[in-house]
Amino acid sequence: MRFYVKNKDNERCLKVSERLIDILVNEGHTLDEYNPEFVFSIGGDGTFLKAVHAYLNIDPIFIGINEGNLGFLCEFTLDDFNIIKNIINDYQDNYKNYSLLELEVNNETYYSLNEVRIESNDGSSLRFDISVNDDFLERLNADGVCISSSIGSSGINKGLGGALVSHNLEIMQLIEKTPINNRCYSSINSPIIFDKDDIITIDNFAYNKFSIYYDNQSYNLNNFNGTIKIYISDKKIRVLKHPNITFTNKVNDAFIK
Length: 257
Hints:
Largest sheet: 10 strands, mixed
Shape: elongated
């Protein structure tokens, strides 16, 4: 097995990374930074997302080991190493395919596991049109908008008042960020869930300086007068699943305990 380890930049995660590498190398596996079959992420969800974006075009199986503050995407600890070894030996039935969100802007394509956000970057209110499958939905006047996957529903989407969604569902959830609602401007002001075949289009910006965030990546735009499209991509990532952890377990652990 060829593997690589991405760890959060702190002493604890570095020690766990070194220990994991020693164990795997001593068992005959090969450390390979450039073409790994398995990528271990040691940290929290932020570290996991960095690993995904670093190896998106390699198509490894990602394994999240939680050594951070919150590991919604990281289901294992190093204490689970015997479980990990057993699963790796029979991984074909133990990983999950997760669809990515695909973002089209300025003739470029970007991918996101959690969410895509369009946000003001200088405090000004943004105004733009939102359409779904070429059907006009609304003209939004707000700080921005967040479009999340089911995986990303537990992140910024939840903080904005969106719904938690089972990771088994292929959906997009749109939620407005601090929309203006008065007799001059009105918006839906509610989360909306779209299915896997829908395409969200955002255009006709009245204020054309803003930022797009996709996971922990960003894209700054100035004088933008084009169209942004967001939809569920055919591109997927593979994530090793813990056999004893369910979506309900993770919700309870992340938000109740």
